[in-house]
């Protein structure tokens, strides 16, 4: 037991050192949310990031004039799981061990990680929310589907609290949670806006199925400030639609 604990401590320290080295001044490709390596320049930082500037189906978007269709409410089959909460230098990420997933028309996707942006990256009719969570899913073919959950300021959110309490303050830090049940974070209505987009961080990979829940959930001002104390602004600006349509169910 003692040996294991020692091993874990050493791993944590090494991870911290590597991250510090990675963020060194000689790494000009380190992307960020402010100039000179901010969103306007991501596409030029590295050839692998070129889609960030040349892509035609990028995310996030301002959701307007969604077309009403018969999309079913999101079909979720999440289960409680152990998880890590890590500070990766761009956001706080929750990575479960085995937390179930979702089923879309295109098939089943496993839940792989969740992270946060402030303010929300998605806009709805021009409105920004103070926080969003992106629940990233992957199918057997490696294709991605993201569920976006919007937060508005209001009541204390007891489901979010253990995650916020575990957030490592420094880049490279990792904490462990015995039980995360992402299903409890979701609103009562699982109606979604659906559109095809991309990762909102480099390399801005396209072909991502976006499912933005139409109903926000709440968090308290204190909870929002706890996240913003670590990341005051980590949202990519909205991207051009370029003729894409957004569908909405319900
Ligand atoms: Zn995201």
Automatic annotation (TrEMBL):
CDD domains: alpha_CA_prokaryotic_like. It comes from the Bacteria. SUPFAM superfamilies: Carbonic anhydrase. It catalyses: hydrogencarbonate + H(+) = CO2 + H2O. InterPro entries: Alpha_CA_prokaryot-like (IPR041891), CA_dom (IPR001148), CA_dom_sf (IPR036398), Carbonic_anhydrase_a-class (IPR023561). Its EC number is 4.2.1.1. Keywords: Lyase, Metal-binding, Signal, Zinc. Residues 29-250 form the Alpha-carbonic anhydrase domain. Belongs to the alpha-carbonic anhydrase family. This is carbonic anhydrase. It comes from Pseudomonas azerbaijanorientalis.
């Amino acid at each position: 037991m003692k040996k294991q604990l020692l091993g874990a401590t050493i791993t944590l320290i090494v991870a911290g050192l590597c991250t510090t080295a990675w963020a060194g001044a000689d790494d000009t490709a380190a992307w960020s949310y402010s100039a000179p390596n901010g969103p306007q320049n991501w596409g030029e930082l590295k050839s692998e990031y070129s889609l960030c500037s040349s892509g035609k189906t990028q995310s996030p978007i301002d959701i307007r004039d969604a077309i009403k269709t018969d999309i079913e409410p999101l079909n979720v089959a999440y289960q409680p799981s152990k998880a890590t909460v890590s500070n990766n230098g761009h956001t706080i990420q929750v990575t479960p061990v085995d937390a179930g997933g979702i089923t879309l028309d295109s098939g089943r996707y496993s839940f792989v990680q969740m992270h946060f942006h402030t303010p929300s990256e998605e806009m709805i009719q021009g409105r920004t929310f103070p926080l969003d969570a992106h629940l990233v899913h992957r199918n057997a073919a490696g294709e991605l589907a993201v569920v976006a959950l919007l937060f508005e300021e209001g009541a204390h959110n007891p489901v979010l609290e253990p995650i916020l309490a575990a957030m490592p303050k420094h880049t490279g830090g990792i904490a462990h949670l015995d039980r995360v049940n992402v299903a409890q974070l979701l609103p009562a209505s699982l109606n979604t806006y659906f559109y095809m987009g991309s990762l909102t961080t480099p390399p801005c990979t396209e072909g991502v199925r976006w499912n933005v829940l139409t109903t926000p959930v709440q968090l308290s001002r204190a909870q929002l400030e706890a996240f913003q104390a670590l990341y005051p602004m980590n949202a990519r600006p909205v991207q051009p639609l370029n003729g894409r349509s957004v569908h909405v169910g319900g």
